[in-house]
Tyrosinase
Amino acid sequence: MLLFALGFLLVILQPSTGQFPRVCANVQSLLSKECCPPWDGDGSPCGQLSGRGSCQNILLSQAPLGPQFPFSGVDDREDWPSVFYNRTCRCVGNFMGFSCGECKFGFSGLNCAERQVKIRRNIFQLTAIEKNKFLAYLNLAKSITSQDYVIATGTYAQMNNGLNPMFRDISVYDLFVWMHYYASRDTLLGGSSVWRDIDFAHEAPGFLPWHRVFLLMWERQIQRITGDESFTIPYWDWRDAEDCEVCNDEYMGGRHPTNPNLLSPASIFSSWQVICTRSEEYNSQQALCSATGEGPLRRNPGNHDKSRTPRLPSSADVEFCLSLTQYESGPMDKMANYSFRNTLEGFADPQTAISNPAQSGLHNALHIYMNGSMSQVQGSANDPIFVLHHAFVDSIFERWLRRHRPMLEVYPAANAPIGHNREYYMVPFIPLYRNGEFFKPSRELGYDYEYLQEPAVPSFQEFLMPYLQQARQIWAWLVGAAVFGGIVTAVLTGLIRACRKKKGGTSSEIQPLLIESEDYNNITYQSNF
């Protein structure tokens, strides 16, 4: 294990993707509201000299929002990221990243011209070596500090409008925990007042695209810090599960022998400290989560509120959800009826698609079932089961996209809750991604799921090949048969001609070939076989 860890240390200086770029977390960038770092390849902002991109004004969506958030100018996340920066790198072609130094999802190579599709696999289909490597990667991400990103520990107003930057380092894994918290936290209104009916990642159309980007970025970070470009997130197929199949020390950690709310000491995750779980404390202090440790990871699967989540999701629940033709409907929040998104998220009944926030189905059911760190929205990503769960949720989203083949226009362009319109930039990602950019098949983003892979359609040549091979085996026989048939045909033709010449003329006993008109109607035709 020591050699394993030392090998990792050789690559920790590779880029990371996440929230505030370290190079832009300073007074100059905040006051100028510009985050256009130079690309290391040529030293120019956004790699402009190499044609990768350029520093541009951010184009914000002007589409009207839904009524769920009745405020304006009180939350740093409004019109993201304009409170902090209004100029960022706009990359061209297949380039991406806060400095245009990366390739878009689904592309690789020096010039980002090579298409690639990686396969996410069922965690129970991994070999022992692959599974242990995955667990080691998780633990490594928890301990390595992100080299390119920092988190904000105060609001823009608390930073004195940029004059007093408030940022701190964070590990690669906790960076993503913090981002999930930041997107779903309450709005701080001053004093002790908060607004709870706001979430930039849940309870609205962007739920599925947001988590799709989150997983893609998380996956890329593991590839970067380990140097393992082939790594993909495994998924847990929880359909019809009777209990938490991954909750054992071989996988994601078993139950503690004396405290059922904690993990087994034999699990590497038992030593993990959670962050961003004390939302009421932050609200009372009008503060942001500072990512300090708040105690051990908690999980007590199955000992949850059965009245809210009576069972884990079934295959029938998933199939019914997939049959829904509308992606979004009505108010486009957790009260939406007959909405695929709301039913998959778990606020609508998985057997009727009627909204029922008092019950938790599908996606929500797994969170409630875990009965611990994963059951509280803002801090749920602390539990590493989160990525396994959301990878499978994303695969259901992918099945719906393939079955219904929706146009981009199906995703709401206006009147969705704040942060969820099609052209809205997702909070809190930098580089910037719009919701609508990830409302498309996963293969276009460079990945697929093992159980969704379609068999290749055979070419016309492949279709004919079996018949051609059979023809080769009987070729000699076919040629002989053709020659013999030609000889027999020639002999018979000669005999027929000879007989005609011998008979010659017309005998009086021979009946006429044409029947006289008056006899025609007296004849009855019969067919004998």
User: Anything to note?
Assistant: Confidence is low (pLDDT under 50) at residues 1-18, 456-463, 502-529. The CA atoms of residues 260 and 300 lie 6 Å apart. The longest strand covers residues 53-57. The chain has 13 helices and 14 strands.
